Structure formats: C-alpha cells, structure tokens
Amino acid sequence: MYESESLPMVVLSEGWVQFLLAISCVLLLVISLLAIFSWLKRKKGITKAKEQAGAFLVFVTVLLIYFALSLALPRAYVSDVLIGPKTAKPVEDNGVRYLSLSTIYKVHGIETGAVIREAQGKTVHISINEYEPIYAFAKANEEVVRNDQSIDVAAYIDQVAVSELEKLDNEEITLTQLRERLPHLQFDFQ
Fold first, then answer.
1. Which of 1, 104, 112, 121 has its CA 20 to 30 A from that of 23?
2. What is the maximum span of the chain, computed from C-alpha positions, in angstroms?
3. Count of CB atoms situated within 10 Å of the CB of 129
4. 10: Cα separation from own chain's centroid
5. pLDDT in tens, the chain (190 residues)
C-alpha cells in the first residue's frame, strides 16, 4: 500500500483493497447485528425465525455493499499509465486500484505503443513521449475518453496528429515544425 506523491490519488494493490474491504464489511456486519439484536430484544413478541431473517437480511446487505464498493474502485494493471492534471505515472504492480478526488485518466498498456498512420507516402509510427498534455485534451474532448475513463489513443492521434500530418503532406509545415507543434509525440518515418 502506498500513496502516490506525484498524483492527487491513493493507489492500493488489489490485495490491500480486498483486505480493507473485508475488514470493513466484517466490522459493519458485527455492528449491524449487535444493533438489530439489541433492538429486537427490546421488542415483545419477536420469534427466533424473525431474528434469523433479520440476521440474514443484514448479511445480504453487507455482502452487497462489499461488491458495490469493490466494483466502484477503478483498476489499473501493469504497464497502464495513470494521467493526472499535472503528471503521469506508469503502473508497476500487477493489479492496483486507485481513488482520487480529481479526474484521473488511464491509458491501457496495450495502447502505449506506436500508432501507425500514413504520411508522405511512408508509414509513420507515432508514439507518446509525455502523457501530461493528453489530460487537458481529454478533459476538453470527451469523445476520446471511454466509459472506464481510459483514453482511446488511436482517436487522440487521429484528432491531434493526423491533421498535422496532412499539413506535412501538403508542404504547409516542415517535419521540424511538426515536432515543435507536438513535442509530446514522437514521429518515426519508415
């Protein structure tokens, strides 16, 4: 378990999340059962069957709370990149959960490689050097953000880099100008 210093978020390993959820739910179950049984003892005419039904309903409720909380915390896996407002952090553990007060975007590990496009009759491999500029773009253009708050890198490249590659094709800009306009992207012509 560790708290990230570079991002305004808490990142926990999957094991710690499940441990903390289990302990919390057991405590909630014990407290709820004690409260219900003390309330039932004060009432007259409560049968053992009603006590067991109440205990079962409390157990089911706590179990549902456990699964709801477990599903509510977003996950990231090794080689994913978590992008915050000021910095980006690659995930180094096999599976983590993260919690933040601000919006955090994720780039899936499989999308951290190069995206291939055509320009000047050649194949261009476009890869991302710095992820921080993507945050502001994703915040302003939600069409590149998926439902799970991950960024569709191919859509991002199509919206940001392809128009610049077309200008390069039309000789409106030079390769140096392209690299200056998009310094967070790396263009390899092959």
1. 104
2. 89
3. 10
4. 12
5. 333 444 467 888 888 888 999 999 899 988 988 888 888 778 776 777 877 888 888 889 999 999 998 888 888 999 899 988 887 888 888 889 988 888 889 999 888 888 888 888 888 899 998 888 898 899 998 899 999 889 999 999 999 898 888 888 888 888 889 889 999 998 888 8
